[in-house]
Write a structure and sequence with these properties.
Keywords: Signal. This protein has 300 residues and is an alpha+beta fold. It contains six helices and 17 strands. The strands form four sheets. Strands 2, 3, 4, 5, 13, 14 and 15 form a seven-stranded mixed sheet that branches. A four-stranded antiparallel sheet has the order 6-12-7-8, with helices on one face. A three-stranded mixed sheet has the order 16-1-17.
Length: 300
């Protein structure tokens, strides 16, 4: 008998949400930086929201308009087009006032601010990192003038990668490691593609431009809308989502899967509508699951 992963449904009772059977949207009514918003969403829900279509965009407008009484109100979403050389999304930024909105690579100046510099035509020193455990980085400033991509190759061959900066503390450490040197490359790549922080595969965009992080703007000067705005920093509400689809870590037969789901959750997943089918496909794709999984359908 072929054993398949078991797909199961987990139910909860959310507050401040848009309703949905397999996926629900939440507003965290506390303003916070983007990296904090992502941590909160991942701790208590699934992640910052990925927006798949205009209908969902409008649902988020409705949540913000009905939950926050303010002339202007914005919330973080999971759209991100700024990433580090090691593939991590940039959820903390420290752009200079002269940072331009174009494809470029990141350099840090003597003041600790990030500059947007042409990746190929400019050559400068660069900083690599070695990872000491899961959280700690060791930094090495390389005194060789190279393009960003040449620097990336060097760091990957001799260290871990070009340096990533995840928060203000790390930015300060990188700045101090410079010891008065001129600007040098860091691992930032800006405006190369629009990704979603949860790994979701959404082709929907509200505008054609993209930047390191977005705010979702619901209301500006009492005008309703659902516009995405670029933002380098700031504090906003968090728009999270929770998926009620769970995939087991172990393979089992259908009968074992049914017993497991009945014992621990609300039963094997029932696909009861086109929307259920769509949400299931999105969640499996987000998790990069391409193999078959059990659902609750059984021929009598």
């Amino acid at each position: 008998m072929v054993l398949l992963s078991v797909l199961l449904l987990l139910w909860g009772v959310p507050l401040l949400t848009a309703t949905g059977r397999l996926r629900q949207l939440f507003l965290i009514d506390t303003q916070m930086p983007m990296n904090v918003a992502q941590n909160v969403c991942r701790k208590d829900y699934t992640d910052l929201v990925t927006i798949y279509d205009e209908e969902e965009n409008n649902e988020l407008v409705h949540i913000l308009n009905n939950s926050v009484k303010s002339v202007s109100v914005s919330g973080w979403i999971g759209a991100n087009s700024c990433k580090w050389s090691n593939g991590d999304p940039a959820t903390f930024t420290n752009y200079s006032r002269t940072f331009t909105e174009e494809k470029c690579c990141g350099a840090i100046n003597t003041g600790g601010r990030w500059e947007c510099v042409n990746c190929n035509s400019t050559k400068m020193y660069f900083m690599c990192y070695d990872q000491d455990g899961k959280q700690s980085y060791n930094y090495s400033l390389i005194h060789e003038n190279r393009s960003w991509f040449e620097a990336q190759i060097y760091c990957r061959e001799k260290h871990t990668d070009l340096v990533s900066i995840r928060d203000e503390t790390e930015n300060k450490r990188v700045k101090e490691a410079v010891n008065g040197s001129n600007s040098f490359w860091i691992g930032l790549q800006y405006n190369y593609s629009l990704d979603w922080l949860d790994g979701g595969h959404s082709a929907y965009t509200q505008n054609s431009s993209s930047q390191a992080c977005f705010t979702f703007l619901s209301r500006e000067n009492n005008k309703l809308g659902g516009f995405w705005f670029k933002c380098n920093a700031g504090i906003y509400y968090a728009l999270c989502y929770k998926s009620f689809i769970h995939v087991s870590e172990k393979n089992m037969s259908w009968d074992e899967a049914r017993d497991y789901c009945n014992r621990n959750f609300s039963g094997l997943l029932r696909i009861e509508s086109e929307n259920d089918q769509k949400e299931t496909e999105r969640e499996l794709k987000r998790r990069n699951i391409s193999w078959p999984v059990w659902v609750g359908l059984k021929e009598s």
